[in-house]
Amino acid sequence: MSSTTATAGAVAQARRTSLHRQRAWTLKASYAVLTLMVVFFLVPPFYMVMTSLKSSAEISAQQGNPWIVQHPTLANFAELIANSNFQTFFVNSVIVTVLVVVISMSISVLAAFSLTRMGFWGSQTLATGVFLTYLIPASLLFIPLFQIIGKLGLINSFWCLVLLYPTLAVPFCTWIMIGYFSSIPRELDEAALIDGAGYMQMLLRIFIPVAMPGIIAATIFAFTASWGAFLYPLAYLYTTDQMVLTVGIVSDLIRGDVFQWGKIMAGCVLAAVPPVLIYAFLMDYYIAGLTAGATKG
Amino acid sequence: MADGTSISANLAAPARAAMAPPSGMRKFMRRRSTIAVLMAMPLILLIAGLVIWPAIYAIWLSMLNKRMTQFVGLGNYAFLLKRNTFQLVIFQSCLFAVTAVILKALLGFIVAHLMHNIPGKNQRIWRGLLLVPWVIPLALSTLSWWWLFDPSYSAFNWILNSLGFQSVPWLGVGWNARFAVIAVNVWFGTPFFMIMYLAALKSVPEQLYEAAAIDGAGPVQKLLHVTLPMMRNIIAITVLFSLIVTFADFDIVRILTAGGPQDMTHLFATYAFSVGIQSGDIPLGASVSLFMLPILAVAAFFVLRGVTRRTQEIAA
């Protein structure tokens, strides 16, 4: 009896050390593969930054390692910031994005509140419809929308983006907000109703503060969707005074066969800064928004 | 903005009025649902006006001739199906979507597992680094890929040359270009899968693994009989969702190859753009886009089913 427990103990001991060794090995292997993935993922942004710091002479020289900048210069950035076209693109992007975020969030918060808390005939169907709309890609409807935008006289005006981008943002934002609002306990609204609050007061004083994380996540989504959209501005805008960053960088900096790669990359870096900054400071909300589609609501 | 504020301003008054007099319950309910409809109205108008109406309009447009003067029925569809270029588009779209989604799902699954292995306090920084491709607007990062693939200045070719290999014409030869657009899509989409799978992995109860270990299950058996069944729904949802997005992709192909060489990398979206907007044949472009509809509808149906089930699982 005692001998069996002793051998069993030894076996367990041996297994524990081998298990320990195995764990350590797994950990090292995990880090190694993750490092490889990080390298793969960071190559384009790294090269973007490197190129943006090169002079055009260095880019065309074709000597030495292209991955490392030999004589870093901020000339590309300085020229771009002074370039009036680039300023226009940036300002247009900011105007469009701010308006779209405000419009989309107002529409989604009101609709999500109405769908989760008030309800009306067909509100369930509408909630499902909202989710289905989210699954409709922009590239399915851009041709009929071209005709519709044309009839509204908004072709080559960035106001057409203010009109169209909410269709990209609102369905998902509403879906996120439905998820967050339905997790708020009903006792809260009953208490508010007993205290004599109206629905608008309930929404503004209770729902919006309590669901703040959801609102931040949805706002981030609306921001990234409208800041980075490419198809609509490419299809509907064609003069430099109306363009936004995503298409402006290409159309303005490529003249015929001349590619000013240093400036193009500098433009990309500048255009990527706002979303990257938001991501750096609000990563948790960003990820909450990303995973909300499938795990909430 | 205008819509949102005006409606909220209008709403405040009736909402308070509804609360003040202790009138009959039925009247109250009727008021309440009227207010509810009003609050959802901007959403309904947006979806009806800019999603449903264009969709119906697209079907109508696709049945007109090029000048939009004559009704041609299904003529555009028949014309497209007979064209060699369009057959290439169908093949390339399916190849692109299926290959890219499989690769993204596999890589995402592996990376999520590796992330799950490492200690929790280190996960944040790694997750932060691995999500970068998803954060940079796709059109911008594709520009930087384009520059990496440049015929004369390609930085990849510099590496190949210094290792003693020949330069590769990344975007100049059909199958190379097909590989390149898939690679960029995988680069962009893998972080999404990783984040979804990591969230799902964390929600698998630890006791299940302990129970499996007591029953003598090895790592492979744990994966097959615990992890995969627990994650099945999330895997299905993400794969189908990504299939829709990848199938309808536009930015990558438009910027990298604009459909070339010899139309070998065109997807439905880029081909619709070049036919409908650039060549000005709106009806034909509309029919090209509409070819995506059946596939998207099937995928969307299953996504919806998966999400509903997932919701029920969470509720239960």
Automatic annotation (TrEMBL), chain A:
Signal peptide: none annotated. The keyword Coiled coil does not apply. It is found in: Cell membrane. Its main location: membrane. InterPro entries: BP-dep_ABC_trans_perm, MetI-like, MetI-like_sf. One of its GO terms (cellular component) is plasma membrane. It is a multi-pass membrane protein. One of its GO terms (biological process) is transmembrane transport. Residues 90-282 form the ABC transmembrane type-1 domain. Keywords: Cell membrane, Membrane, Transmembrane, Transmembrane helix, Transport. The chain crosses the membrane at residues 25-47, 89-113, 125-149, 155-181, 202-223, 235-254, 266-288. The keyword DNA-binding does not apply. PANTHER family: INNER MEMBRANE ABC TRANSPORTER PERMEASE PROTEIN YCJP, MALTOSE TRANSPORT SYSTEM PERMEASE-RELATED. Belongs to the binding-protein-dependent transport system permease family. This is Carbohydrate ABC transporter permease. It comes from Limobrevibacterium gyesilva.
UniProtKB/TrEMBL annotation, chain B:
GO terms for biological process: transmembrane transport. Its main location: membrane. The keyword Ribonucleoprotein does not apply. The keyword Lipoprotein does not apply. Pfam families: BPD_transp_1 (PF00528). Keywords: Cell membrane, Membrane, Transmembrane, Transmembrane helix, Transport. GO terms for cellular component: plasma membrane. This is Sugar ABC transporter permease.
